[in-house]
Amino acid sequence: MASSNNFKGYEAWLVKNSSAMATLESSLRSLTWFLPGRFKDAELASEALAASLNLVSMYHDTLLAKVMQRDPKYRPLIPSSLHTRFTRAWSDKNMRYKWAARALELIRFTELVLEMGLRRKVSPRARWRSVVLLEMIKSVLRVILLRITRRPLLSPPIPERDFDPTALPEFSEPPSPVVSPSPSSPPATPSHLQNNRVPLPPHPLLASPPQNSTETPAEDYLLPKALTASSVKPSHSLLKTLSSHRDWLAEILYILRPLVYGKSAHTRLTLSLLVSDNRKSNRPLVAALILELLSRNLRRSPPPSAALERSEYARRDRDMVWYLLRGSIWESYTKPKLESFADITAQTPILGLFGALVKDWVPLIDEYYYCQLLPHPALDRLLTEF
Fold it and tell me: CB neighbours (10 Å) of residue 304?
């Protein structure tokens, strides 16, 4: 009973202070990008803080979503995004989807801090075996999500926070007893007579349009409310099911990319202990790129009306830029460019801050596998907020 009361009290406090909590989370998350390189094990402290913030944010999103669902009068000022509608619909419809998606996000939030801890405690071979094990678990979870929905995977697979914290319904206090007016007090003014001398503003549809306006007020009012094909579809059907073997193969290849890259890197490390000149092998990078391109060429071309699927494929195409942080591309091209940028901007007042940030993160990309697999969850949320 006490734990239930504490939970309800925390939920009420969160709803009341949701705006301040969102600001605090955003400020601390921005701080984590400037901690590496400031003191010993600063990168571990930074990543531990970032992982904790992501976990707390996911928990808060779950609580706030429950609060909104419990209030039948709550109507968001801005409609939920297609991604949020789809993922929330499947999370509410299928318990296996909800818990597999949450487990996948939990691993994604903590994988880098786990790798940092393993690097300090175990040998490189044991660390890479742990990385491959994590990638195997993630691949299994993604296959489970693919099997449940039979639709292309979205990233992230859980609903994102896309509502205004200040518009949340407030917890109502218990109604106070009504005190009847004393006989000596003057009678109260009836509600239908209160404030009846203040003129109402003219309705936009009845007001005359400006002389230089090319559209009528009715068009200005109706155009933002026009429905699209995605607006009237059921939320769990915003993505079309995978209908052919080619569609399934494209998704399977996309799921297997990180696992193949991690396994190839582990094999490269094992061979490097026996053959010294095998350390610079490009097999992991080439294998991952081949799977990426095969998946891209095999996937179907969604029609213009499939907005959610088109946005997901566009995100996958943009994520290919992170191959600049891997293998020989990183060693021979990206890393020298970033180091040169950091040296050039070292004395510049504003750019020097970004140069120092880049210089602090370059060693992390050299040492940690999951720093090469950006976008990082903290970067995702940071870009979303801005």
Answer: 7
Q: Is residue 191 part of a domain?
A: no
Hey, CA dihedral for 78, 73, 60, 311, is it positive or negative? negative
What total of structural domains would you count in the chain?
Answer: 1
Amino acid at 49: L
Residue 125 to residue 132: CA distance in whole angstroms? 11
* Cβ neighbours of residue 298 closer than 8 Å, sequence gap 6 or more: 246, 247, 249, 250, 253
- Name residues of the chain where pLDDT drops below 70: 1-5, 7, 37, 71-77, 162-232, 270-281, 374-386
pLDDT of residue 205: 57
Assigned domain for 249 exists:
yes
Give me the amino acid identity at 311: S
Three-class SS state of 190: coil
Run of H or E including 267: helix 245-272
What pLDDT shows up at residue 166? Answer: 56
Q: Are 307 and 82 in contact (CB under 8 A)?
A: yes
| 3-class DSSP state of 195 | coil
* Residue 332 domain-assigned (yes or no): yes
* Segment 224-249, tens digit of pLDDT: 555 666 666 778 788 999 989 999 99
Residue 253 buriedness (CB in 10 A; 0-12 / 13-18 / 19+): buried
Q: Residue 27 is inside which H or E element, if any?
A: helix 18-31
Which own/partner pairs from 136-139 qualify as long-range (CB within 8 Å, at least 24 positions apart)? Answer: 136/259, 137/107, 138/104, 138/107, 138/108, 138/258, 138/259, 139/255, 139/256, 139/258, 139/259
Residue 90 · residue 97 · CB < 8 Å: yes
Range of 120's domain? Answer: 2-158+239-385
What does the pLDDT look like over 64-105, one tens digit per residue?
777 777 766 666 667 778 898 899 999 989 999 999 999 999
